[in-house]
Inverse folding.
């Protein structure tokens, strides 16, 4: 766009005309300057009452009481009053502003600032008993520099004209119903018109809760149910705004608190639930398991009884019997292995040199303890191996005899190593009888003496009490107490 096109565009914009209730507003060049001109309608200029009221208002505007009241001067021609000149500033109607730049209502605080300016201006006018009566967007000017509202003609100054439809054609929706019915101008009429203008501003952005409440009460048809003053209207609006701010801040605080709590909770250590799946292992047959049932022992599956085994074929019965024999043989093998180990341990302690050199009372106590341990070991191992009690007792007695014989042999060999083997010529049989001096020298290690009739009897150094029968000469040399003790040992071994 060149300079000439820019000037043409500027002139076209300057020559644009805007319709207002009292006439047509446009800009005219005079002495290379633009001035705002409002050409009055002929039906108004022909009304003498209107012209007289216009002259009085023009005189009052020479020193306006409020900065948002536009001063003007009257222009005349040969026929009389024809127009008014607005000397200062550049203006457009609010209707033109909303149509040309509708996004202006979205600016921050635009609606609130516009309403507050109108409240201040109207409240000052009411102190002077001046009422605007028509806050229509066509009857309110917007200053181009800051879009602030400016008031030009106040309707109460033209009350004597009597016909407000003639003064404000097309703006009846913004005038209180009682004024259209030739009512007297009042503050409630301005409150009604202000409510309508606030409703017009909210068409583009929507009514806020506080404005909706104020507009609803300000635009009631009955003047007594409206706000009775602009101060009441402003106070109600401010209270609702404060309540709304409190609610907003409260909600914001709650949201922030919830966000903070959620953040704090997310940073706390949490125990994760871990489900461990046990490793699958094939069940192995445990022949020492004492919980084996009779059905399992006979190889019967769940729901199968021993009576059902009678229905088996001879081949199946033979196979089951072979499996049972194999099981019994394995059980006996396990029993022999573990019981032999325990018998070796228990009898080794019994035939130790310390026990053999101890007194008869201690030796008998050690013998009883060893027998009790052997019986307990027999019972426990038989239960673990799944062997019957009678069979376990038989095998245990065999193992005890074998281990006892072996211990007897070991004890005899140990004695021959310590004491030379000699035969006594004074004995009645071939058994070894140590001399008196030898008995005295070995009495503390491997022998026991008896002082009856001056005869010394030696307890065999191998300590054999199991299956040991003294010779007749030994029996003659024993006291009665020794013979009784040997008899009790033999009976215990048999049990």
């Amino acid at each position: 766009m060149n300079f000439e096109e820019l000037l043409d565009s500027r002139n076209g914009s300057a020559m644009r005309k805007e319709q207002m209730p009292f006439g047509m507003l446009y800009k005219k060049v005079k002495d290379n300057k633009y001035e705002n001109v409002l050409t009055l309608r002929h039906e108004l200029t022909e009304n003498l009452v209107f012209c007289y009221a216009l002259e009085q208002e023009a005189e009052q505007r020479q020193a306006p009481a409020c900065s948002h009241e536009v001063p003007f001067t009257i222009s005349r021609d040969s026929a009389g009053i024809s127009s008014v000149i607005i000397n200062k500033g550049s203006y457009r109607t609010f209707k033109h502003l909303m149509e040309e730049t509708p996004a202006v209502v979205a600016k921050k605080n635009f609606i609130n600032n516009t309403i507050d300016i109108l409240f201040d201006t109207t409240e000052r006018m009411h102190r002077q008993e001046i009422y605007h009566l028509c806050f229509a967007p066509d009857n309110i000017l917007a200053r181009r520099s800051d879009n602030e509202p400016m008031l030009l003609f106040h309707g109460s100054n033209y009350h004597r004209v009597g016909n407000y439809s003639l003064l404000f054609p097309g703006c009846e929706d913004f005038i209180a119903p009682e004024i259209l019915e030739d009512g007297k101008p009042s503050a409630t009429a301005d409150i009604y018109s202000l409510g309508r203008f606030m409703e017009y501003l909210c068409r583009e952005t929507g009514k806020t809760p506080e404005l909706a409440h104020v507009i609803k009460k300000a635009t009631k048809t009955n003047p007594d149910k409206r706000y009775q003053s602009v101060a009441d209207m402003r106070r109600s609006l401010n209270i609702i705004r404060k309540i709304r701010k409190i609610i907003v801040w409260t909600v914001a605080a709650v949201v922030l608190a919830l966000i903070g709590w959620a953040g704090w909770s997310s940073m706390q250590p949490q125990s994760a639930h871990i489900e461990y799946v046990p490793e699958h292992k094939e069940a192995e047959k445990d022949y020492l398991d004492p919980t084996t049932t009779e059905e399992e022992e006979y190889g019967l599956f769940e729901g199968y009884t021993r009576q059902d085994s009678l229905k088996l074929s001879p081949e199946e019965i033979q196979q089951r019997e072979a499996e049972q024999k194999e099981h019994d043989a394995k059980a006996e093998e396990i029993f022999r292995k573990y019981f032999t180990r325990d018998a070796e341990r228990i009898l080794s302690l019994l035939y130790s040199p310390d026990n053999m050199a101890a007194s008869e009372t201690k030796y008998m106590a050690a013998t009883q303890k060893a027998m009790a341990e052997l019986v307990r070991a027999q019972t426990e191992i038989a239960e673990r191996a799944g062997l019957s009690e009678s069979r376990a007792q038989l095998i245990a007695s065999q193992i005890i005899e074998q281990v006892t014989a072996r211990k007897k042999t070991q004890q005899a060999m140990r004695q021959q190593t310590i004491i030379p083997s000699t035969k006594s010529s004074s004995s009645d049989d071939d058994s070894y009888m140590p001399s008196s001096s030898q008995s005295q020298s070995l009495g503390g290690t491997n022998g026991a003496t008896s002082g009856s009739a001056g005869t010394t009897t030696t307890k065999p150094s191998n300590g054999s009490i199991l299956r040991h029968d003294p010779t007749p000469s030994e029996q003659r040399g024993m006291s009665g107490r020794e013979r009784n003790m040997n008899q009790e040992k033999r009976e215990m071994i048999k049990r």
